[in-house]
Amino acid sequence: MDIPHFELPLPDLEVEINYLTRKESGRTGPVFTGYCGQFYYDGFDWDAPQQFLDEEICFLGETIRAYVQFMSPKQHIGKFYVGKIFKVREGAKTVGIGKILKILREDFKLWEVEKEIEKLENKNSYQPISPLVNVKGIITNFKKSLKHHNDFKYLGFKSTKEKNCLLELTCSLQSSSTNIEDLLPKFRKFWMDEISMKNEMHKIQFSEDKVELEFLTWDTSYCTGKIILIKN
Q1: C-alpha dist (Å) from residue 160 to 40, 100, 124, 205
Q2: CA-CA-CA-CA torsion for 162, 108, 208, 38, nearest 10 degrees?
Q3: Are 226 and 168 in contact (CB under 8 A)?
Q4: Three-state SS across 48-104?
Q5: Pick from 207, 160, 164, 156: which is nearest to 184 by CA?
Q6: Which pLDDT belongs to residue 46?
Q7: Which of 72, 115, 216, 226 has a Cα-to-Cα distance from 57 of 20 to 30 A?
């Protein structure tokens, strides 16, 4: 079979992918280099073409090494670590399970809040936000914004003097029957569009009944913390 040569210009990750068989509810046919299934991690699907490294075709049930390159790279800064598991999907259907072997783009490596604070303070002379004025403003904005979202309700907050977590905000799902994973895109958009400052970094951890969005956001000063979404 004559398979066209495919090469990514600037690959972001080196990964290992096992493509599921038909019996495992996978695809109905083999996968070729250049395939662009959805790269699914932390509750979100992303377009990321694959360049196979050892072979140009992967039959179902086999494992292949590949490079991947994201079509929206800015969305993935500080999100990955070696060994992180992801899925390859077609719509809502999982067709492959993968693992990250190497991170080829330096700024994609998982960010650590202590190191990022050190950069802000040493290079740009940023300071933590004022607990009396700015923190109170974020809490007020958080509560007001939640009133416009039918899916979430406000539960409370906790502020500390710890630089790596100055503020912890908690909310819950309005309906206990809602699948928390289905609301991850809306929850993330809520943070980015309505709560964060001009600049931000975040990472998400989630389970069936809880989501933790850890953040660092800054403009003229910085704030760190978590937004916790729980399922009642």
Answers
A1: 34, 35, 23, 21
A2: 160
A3: yes
A4: CCEEECCCCEECCCCEEEEEECCCCHHHHCCCECCCCEEEEEECCEEEEEEEEEEEC
A5: 207
A6: 95
A7: 72
Q: How far apart are CA 7 and CA 11, in angstroms?
A: 9
The three-class DSSP label of residue 207 is: coil
* Element housing 212 (H / E): strand 210-218
Q: How far is it, in rounded angstroms, from Cα 179 to Cα 115?
A: 34
Question: Residue 18 and residue 15: Cα distance in Å, rounded?
Answer: 10
Tokens of 122: 């040493």
Place of tokens 């009642």: 232
CA-CA distance, 116 to 102, in Å (whole number)?
22
Q: Domains along the chain?
A: 13-108 (2.40.30.10), 113-230 (3.30.460)
Sequential DSSP letters for 90-156 = ETTEEEEEEEEEEE-SGGGBPP-HHHHHHHHHHHH---BPPTTTHHHHHHHHHHHHHTT-TTEEEEE
Q: What is the pLDDT of residues 184-222, one digit of tens each?
A: 888 888 898 889 998 998 988 887 788 899 999 999 899
Phi (first) and psi of residue 203, to 5 degrees: -145, 150
How far apart CA 55 and CA 17 sit, in angstroms, is: 13
pTM, two decimals, is 0.73
Which residue, among 20, 206, 43, has the nearest Cα to 96 in the 3D structure?
20
